[in-house]
Design brief:
By secondary structure, this protein is α+β, with helices and mostly antiparallel strands. It is built from one helix and four strands. A four-stranded antiparallel beta sheet has the order 1-4-3-2, with no helix packed on it. The longest helix has 9 residues.
Length: 86
């Protein structure tokens, strides 16, 4: 640990830390489902002149083929379309 980090660690107090109890910190609200909201992303092409996808669909905008998500970069398995989900 560097001297700067050691100094920061020694300056902390217990008030800065979160409780050790399991989340949601021993509340009476355990077991309640969290709200989920639908996201309607759109596939955007890497090239500005290429086709744009329909909202909520991960089908290829150019040929309606299947797309594969590779760390945020979508690639069509049937044609050479590539893009990202926005």
């Amino acid at each position: 640990m560097t001297p700067q980090l050691a100094h920061l660690e020694s300056a902390r107090t217990d008030a800065d830390r979160t409780p050790d109890a399991p989340f949601p910190y021993a509340s009476t609200d355990t077991g309640f489902a969290l709200a989920q909201y639908p996201a309607r992303g759109v596939l955007r092409p890497a090239e500005p002149t290429a086709a744009v996808g329909a909202a909520g669909s991960t089908a290829c905008p150019a040929c309606d083929g299947e797309t594969i998500n590779g760390a945020g970069l979508f690639v069509c398995t049937s044609c050479d379309w590539t893009g990202i989900l926005r």
